[in-house]
From TrEMBL:
High-level lineage: Bacteria, Pseudomonadati, Bacteroidota, Bacteroidia, Bacteroidales
Family annotation (SUPFAM superfamilies): Actin-like ATPase domain (SSF53067), SMAD/FHA domain (SSF49879)
Classification via InterPro entries: ATPase_NBD (IPR043129), FHA_dom (IPR000253), Hsp_70_fam (IPR013126), SMAD_FHA_dom_sf (IPR008984)
Record-level Gene Ontology MF annotations: ATP binding; ATP-dependent protein folding chaperone
Species the sequence originates in: Bacteroides xylanisolvens
Keyword Electron transport on entry: no
UniProt domain FHA: residue ranges: 386-440
Keywords, ordered alphabetically: ATP-binding, Nucleotide-binding
UniProt name for this protein: FHA domain-containing protein
């Protein structure tokens, strides 16, 4: 499988992994195991990316792009260049570095990890796919980020059953928790996720910078506007240092010291972290699980290095009589160490290795795709996105005035074992989609789930129309 690379395209930093001598290996250009997800668009034909772009930030701030992962479906309005071209340049750079690490051998197949909330119809997937092809890859596959992290944990455990895992993914821009059933640890099953919580490294960095800015203003020694990027980067490094040290001090552009201790950082970010726990509560409720059902919480992402994250998790677990649940940031298993910073890209390589192993095994009888039963009508689902609503433009339309024109979708895809998975997502801006007569998927209620994995026999209600799902 030596011509695969897994790329975790992140908000602030990206990472890549390849397989060397049968084991996942991080790609580390210049001995640094990540790629800043940044670009400087100097002209339509000149885009500098990743490590090479960082020095351009202060000189060409109007042409500098960063933290744009979730916005790639929009236009950056930057020297006439769209995000597809920017992403392609970043992927091309990572591809080249990965091939150097691969002893010069070509890597023409890529697995891109994506947030759990992306469905088949999400235009950001199309942009990523086209960008990867533009970068020189011939084969492009996608894998949900929490599933990739679960695969990394499964690989480290060497197929020992791990039970129910909560993936606590706190990176640069958003918090994306997911629930994985790892009873068969070499086949993690996706049970559900939550999304949209704006919490992560960039918000923590901004909070420290704003505090420094306020203190400077109160001293009547404001920061130098032209050096705001330097000050912001200094505040970011100060925040990172507080994961290891109880306090730290930096010099800012006004030639004054700015100091912050860990308690001060906790005060700045504590309310944001509380939102992540509320999102986990909502996700567990959606899946009809309790905190006591969880075997371990897998920490994923650089922002989980902040000590307050583990502290708040321990307190939350204790408040739910679940103090026995393990919080895993680092551990050693049969196949090495769990790496919370790079679990996603390392897990992607473990996943693709397992997938290829299964393809080499004799194939089983073809599994049939499930159906929805509505009265006497049978809705035969297809692989991909199936749309339901009152509009005749939907795949399945119904003359129910209480149903929205586009009410819900069911995304049908194969998991790593070749079996079909079914993810129902509400699309109505006004009305909930009811699952099993008690769970409301709702776009307008904070922390209400938007999607859930369907199990055999589940019921769905849209308006007054009821469906039953059968595999």
């Amino acid at each position: 499988m030596g011509n695969w690379v897994c790329i975790d395209f992140g908000t602030c930093n990206s990472a890549a992994a390849i397989e060397i001598d049968g084991r996942p290996k991080l790609v580390s250009p210049n001995n640094v195991p990540f790629f800043p997800t940044v670009a400087c668009v100097l002209s339509r034909d000149k885009i500098v990316v990743c490590q090479n772009a960082e020095s351009f930030k202060t000189h060409y701030p109007e042409s500098f792009l960063q933290e744009f992962k979730l916005d790639i479906a929009n236009s950056p309005d930057c020297n006439g260049v769209d995000y597809q071209k920017v992403v392609a340049e970043i992927l091309r750079y990572i591809k080249g570095c990965s091939e150097v690490e691969n002893n010069g051998a070509r890597l023409d197949r890529v697995i891109l990890t994506i947030p759990a909330i992306y469905t088949e119809q999400d235009s950001r997937k199309d942009i990523m796919r086209l960008a990867a092809l533009d970068a020189g890859f011939t084969t492009v596959e996608f894998l949900r980020e929490p599933q990739a992290a679960a695969w990394h944990y499964a690989y480290i455990n060497d197929s020992h059953s791990a039970g129910l895992s909560l993936i606590y993914d706190l990176g640069g821009g958003t918090f994306d928790p997911a629930l994985m059933d790892m009873g068969e640890v070499d086949n993690p099953t996706f049970l559900g996720c939550n999304s949209g919580v704006k919490c992560g490294g960039q918000y923590f960095d901004a909070a420290v910078y704003k505090k420094a800015q306020k203190e400077a203003k109160d001293m009547d020694k404001p920061l130098v506007r032209e050096k705001r990027w330097n000050d912001y980067e200094a505040c970011k490094k100060l925040k990172e240092s507080l994961s290891a040290s109880p306090s730290g001090t930096i010099m800012l552009s006004n030639d004054e010291f700015f100091s912050l201790n860990r308690e001060g950082l906790n005060a700045l970010i504590g309310e944001k972290l509380d939102l992540t726990l509320s999102a986990c509560d909502s996700m567990l409720k959606t899946a009809h699980k309790e905190w006591t059902h969880i075997n371990q919480v897998l920490l994923v992402g650089g922002s989980t290095s902040i000590p307050l994250v583990s502290e708040k998790l321990r307190q939350h677990l204790a408040s739910h009589n679940a103090s026995e649940v393990r919080i895993i940031r680092s551990m050693t298993g049969i196949n090495g160490e769990y790496n919370h910073n790079y679990a996603v890209c390392l897990g992607g390589i473990a996943y693709i290795e397992r997938l290829l192993d299964k393809q080499e095994q004799p194939s089983m009888a073809e599994e049939q795709i499930g159906i929805l039963i509505c009265g006497n009508e049978v809705c035969q689902l297809k692989e991909g996105v199936n749309t339901f609503g009152r509009s005749s433009e939907q795949d399945f339309s119904f003359s129910d005035p209480a149903m929205s024109r586009e009410h819900f979708t069911i995304d049908v895809s194969r998991n790593s074992s070749g079996h079909y998975e079914y993810l129902v997502t509400t699309m109505s801006q006004k009305k909930a989609t009811i699952i099993n007569d008690r769970l409301a998927l709702n776009l307008n209620v904070p922390f209400a789930p938007r999607n859930i994995a369907l199990v055999d026999g589940a019921t769905i209600q849209a308006g007054v129309t009821r469906f039953q799902f059968k595999k």
